[in-house]
Automatic annotation (TrEMBL), chains A, B, C, D:
Annotated InterPro entries: Beta-lactam/transpept-like, Glutaminase, STAS_dom, STAS_dom_sf
PROSITE patterns in the cross-refs: STAS
GO molecular function, one term: glutaminase activity
Protein name: Glutaminase
Residue numbers spanned by region Disordered: 399-432
Gene from which this protein is expressed: glsA
Keywords associated with the record: Acetylation, Hydrolase
Positions of substrate binding: 64, 114, 160, 167, 191, 243, 261
Organism: Aeromicrobium senzhongii
EC number(s) given by UniProt: 3.5.1.2
Short name of one Pfam family: Glutaminase
Enzyme kind, highest EC tier: hydrolase
Length: 432, 432, 432, 432
């Protein structure tokens, strides 16, 4: 059977191909000379499968799509406090090249506008890096997101620097507010190099998938940045990624996204997918015309909106019964599926305010495939409380799906492989 | 066992209780007279369980928390186009009472600022409703979200009207732009009545849970508004709900939310939970001081951030084997869990570019608990393509988890209850 | 001989008549129905001569041209402090109907924008006037400027009120800031009546001439408002009178001016002339197209720019000589012309650091036609110092051009009609 | 007798000396180190007399006071159109260092804010000047205004360049809009040199007097720039010279003015006086605290407000009678004083619509001291019309106060020294 996803992508491209509105960015010759008809789209799954159609291996400069990734690197390298002290997270409702500094402090409103991105660039790496080594750190960081070594397009870079007046204006303004503390020209030079990194739609798909995959590159398996960093980056992309059309995008598409002036556009759907498109024709906001159309279609066709509730899972309590009789009687609660807060609440409700005659209460996790941290803590608290009520609590957990099963003060659980009995005495955790 | 969730809520309240910063809103005597020490919090699950601690049955006026619900009603009553023509969806980055109209059109930036909310009020119900009946429709609509009949606090309403200068200013400005087409005073009067509806934290919890539950009230089971309306409302809450601190909230809390000047605060976590808090002390943005603290804690403790990827589910392909031999050989692909786009893609990948010697290919859905629409369409397309490749395709679907199993042009599936054979000939769908 | 000024005006009108660009204001039927081809111009001298050409007796509504006069009335009735506390004097650089309130206080930027004009209207008369009597005061005040009883066009007034949404918005906003303390609708109603007062170009010429003439109506001789009020009004007209084109007007025309949406335009050249034009076709700023052209021409042809230095007067010291000999010798300094600070300085210089052998020093004012207050004080100080140096000081002042000739502490002057001797002993002022 | 003006100035300084509020500018060490107690004031008359009190010979840097003079040089060197194409004339209502560029074009709002002043600097001299020679031209131009060779404080200049981030930001922004077409750093460097020119209060007094004196330096007699340039500069100073307090200054002081951050402040009263003060303590607007107080006092004491009408002159028609009888009868109209438009109108009125039986009409200019251009043209037109009515027109003009006495088409005048007869046949002008 031929896979239907490439077909779907090909069909989507065919539908938008007729739209020849918009023009490639014209402010430097290298961008103006881009073939306006190039068109490609990529879906990158969290286990590293790439689906593509059209021009997915054509190289172009990453431009503003570098912004969320450099922001991730800065957060990782300097910590949240240091970065937030210099760059805000509020939507500006303004175009990408508005200065948008806060009145008193001169702090840029967010890292997606140029002022914030220039500042962010200066915050990558340790504070003592010289400009050249900081660029190296940025390029290596972007490469880690892409899963292959990326390089800078020197011709684009040189040409951009010749027309970088506005960015130099912004950097000098930031310098006057002490948001930048170095030579503004050197920072802009580094930032322009960051924007001139060459990528393909395939690379961008992987980079987006790394964000969707909690920071783990699906190809290399490398944890490029930590999960809280990814959450911060996605949040900022969701509110500030599409400039002055942020609200339209948030309602109609609903995928955290970022566009670049060379025609790239990425979206990351947390836990599901990385998406990238490439088409150099831009609309008045500087976003790729056909890229925006494709994302609208993907969101609509595939139900990818972050505000769409996932379909209901069945109750995590698959069954609840008493087994055996007398002293051997066991209260067995069989759980299933993935358990987050709402599922854990359901478990709590199953046992709260109940009096079980059986001494042993077994929580059977055999059919459970995942437990997040809050759910883990809630289940252990249930176990602790049942212990305090006089029960022996068993966790049937053959796949060790619940890590570190210590219920804490006064609690005690016996972990078993099956309902029959304990896996081994050693797995009864001691209170540490 | 005593449920731990009320304990958790009580503990959370105890922790924030010491914070006596901020003051109740003081612009009218009724609000200024609020007991500043009132404090309550509610978790409302999507199956209608209410967890509460503190003052969850104290009545107070809903104020701006009515805005997302009235927006939902307007979208439901007039349609998206009519509402979007008059109220935008862009974050304004400004305080709630800024006028924030678009330059040319006078269209308010979004429905969460007063200008947008006044306009939204005027768009509830059919265009020919008189002001009084429109208020009735609004109150009934809010009641449907709450699951009980709500009423207006006439004293607050009268007092608000006496100080409604700024809203009258906004309404007259909207009238001058033809965004409003009626008497501005009548619209403001209706809007003030909307804001004066009395609710409890318990009500707000249910209202939030209705949003989290795709528009279905967990108590009454009523589909109050359609799912696309809910998605739109949640998107706007996410970007515009917390006024000029929208970005802080989006990054730190990450729950679509809305606050009211009487001290209420709601959050809706799609597919998981409705949350409400009540504490009348306000910060400089007009948000409840302790409410904000509670939400920060809930988000952090319970991993409720919308940009946090859910924990990985196991592969939807549980097993894949050939059963039997010769003409009876069947290729069985056993699926499990909930299937959305990413899961369906995994199924596609399992069969794409493969040649199966067996004539019959069975997709066993027995352990699948949910399939969303895109996944359903993808599975059916897989079935269609396998048919075209010469296979007999069986769907083992004892619980009819996949509705309307028609693979379309050239495809054919046989639906069965078990691997053994078809459930009934009648369930083999014909091409319509 | 036929006067050339009407010819000049007629010729100027003929030159601009061909310009049919622009349209009458269209927001109410009464203004839209104005004959767009009406055209008139008036020069009103400070002694009450009216030169006119074209439609100078056609009535139209005064509209915004009422603003500087109502501002004058408010300053006169309430004092500078009370008015400045509620309305600023800063150019807003914005269109007439921008709200332009100061951030914190809500104080309108200046009295020429609508927000400031509405506030100004509320400040005319004593604070206890009811709205109707305040309108009476305003109409009577405008009539005093015009020198004839003016009346309100009730049809325009009623029509304006039907479309007064924006002004109602502004008034409610002002009410919310406590800049207005009354019912906003009543204030707007009064303001609209003020704007609906009927005038002719002839009336406007006299009104402008009253401003140019230090507040004295050239026809009636009435001091309508005091001179400091006029100075304030002219200053505000100079910086804020032409809205967002204030700087263009200040540089190119240089005459304090004010336009109205019904086609009127006035200019006041302090000490020289009042000018008015009438032509209903408006440009995009809402100023009369042909009125602006006429003023540009008048300024250029007649050297009327306030920043153009007047032609040099001859030295105020016409001659300086010693007359007679011995004890009868007199030092005579003959002065001439009008004396202000610069002229008085010249007198000071004539006598400073000199030692005159003559006992008597006579300052001969016979050819002096005016002395302003600073010059008067300087001349008396010269007299006082000469007295202290041992001189007898004579002022030869047959026309009593120098009032109250008391040189103060230690000084003494003898006022005479002619060089020969004292006019009368009685005119030697005693130290009071 | 001792001159009272130095006494007045000394007394004024003594009164403000007690005010030690404010601090010298602190952004560079050289300014921060200024002696905060320095205080001086200068009155410079249009015939070159300097009155001074206090520290009038202390050198300090001219800073922003260079702006109006550089603007004058740019207008003189490039013409109005070229300068207005790049720098507007609208008040910005903003602080001096706001960027304030027009939205579309990037044109600075006016030449008094830094963006406009940097652009203005780039427009001094011919377009092909290199930056160094442009600075030479600027310094020479400022020297011409001051009447002595000025020089640059190299230490201040170097220090300013080290902190010129904001000006570099502005210059790069201007470069991005093609308002500047050169290297932004070079332009800022030149502008900083312009601001670092050393002056004394005495110099500034002369510079201001040059503006007050139609561009003629009272000391050197040099016409530094043409009169229309001066009018433009004074107009812009009047509306934009005091930044965000422009309206306060225009109403309360009413003297076109400009301040500098080193403590200087100038005012030019057209046709009367140049004023300068020096006191380094600055208020929050960056204006000299004591300088502002002194100007308020000068304006109030000396009636120097540009919107104060000059005192009325006597009628320009001193007498009007018929002399002689029969064929020798002459109608004699004796004029006096300075004649501008309003005076000429009075003459017109004297003869218009009259029928004089005398053949000869004599306009006696003996007592007239000045006639401006419009008045000259009006008098000649009167003469022409009287000729056409059949009169012989004589101008009695012993001092040739009326230049080029050609009444044009059909007119004819005989110029005489005295009423008796023609000065010479040669002075009867022929029609050219």
């Amino acid at each position: 059977m031929r896979s239907l996803i490439p077909d779907y992508l090909a069909e989507a491209l065919a539908d938008v191909e007729a739209d020849v509105s918009g023009e490639p960015a014209g402010y430097i010759p290298e961008l103006a000379a881009a073939d306006p008809d190039r068109l490609g789209a990529v879906f990158a799954t969290l286990d590293g499968t790439i689906y593509g159609a059209g021009d997915i291996d054509t190289e172009f400069t990453i431009q503003s799509i570098s912004k969320p990734f450099a922001y991730a690197l800065a957060l990782a390298d300097r910590g949240f406090d240091a970065v937030l002290a210099k760059v805000g997270v509020e939507p500006s409702g303004e175009a990408f090249n508005e200065i948008s500094l806060e009145d008193e402090t001169g702090r840029p409103r967010n890292p997606m506008i140029n002022a914030g991105a220039i500042t962010t660039h200066s915050l990558v790496g340790s504070p003592d890096l010289d400009p050249a080594r900081r660029v190296t750190r940025v390029v290596e960081g972007l490469s880690a997101f892409a899963g292959r070594p990326l390089s800078v397009d020197e011709a684009v870079c040189a040409s951009e620097m010749e027309e970088a007046w506005r960015n130099l204006a912004i950097a000098n303004m930031l310098r006057s507010h002490r948001i930048l503390t170095e030579d503004p020209r050197a920072v802009v030079d580094g930032y322009v190099r960051q924007c001139s990194v060459l990528v393909t739609a395939r690379d961008l798909g992987i980079m987006a998938a790394t964000l969707a995959n909690r920071g783990v590159n699906p190809l290399s398996g490398e944890q490029v940045v930590a999960e809280p960093v990814v959450r911060q980056v996605l949040s900022v992309m969701a509110t500030c990624g599409m400039y002055d059309a942020a609200g339209d995008w948030a309602t109609q598409v609903g995928i955290p996204a970022k566009s670049g002036v060379a025609g790239g556009l990425i979206g990351a759907l947390p836990g599901q997918l990385g998406i990238a498109t490439f088409s150099p024709r831009l609309d008045v906001h500087g976003n790729s015309v056909r890229g925006v159309s494709l994302f609208e279609r993907f969101s609509s066709d595939a139900g990818m909106h972050v505000m769409a509730a996932p379909p209901s899972a069945p109750s995590v309590v698959r069954s609840h019964r008493a087994m055996g009789t007398g002293a051997d009687a066991v209260r067995v609660i069989q759980l299933q599926g993935g358990i987050r807060f709402a599922g854990a609440e359901r478990i709590v409700r199953e046992v709260a305010d109940q009096v079980f005659p059986e001494t042993t209460v077994a929580l059977d996790l055999t059919l459970v495939h995942s437990i997040d941290d809050v759910a883990r803590r809630m289940i252990l608290e249930v176990a602790r409380r049942l212990t305090l009520d006089g029960h022996d609590v068993h966790l049937v957990d053959p796949d060790s799906i619940l890590p570190d099963p210590d219920p804490g003060e006064g609690g005690r659980v016996t972990v078993t492989d099956a309902l029959a009995g304990p896996i081994s005495p050693g797995r009864t955790p001691a209170r540490r």
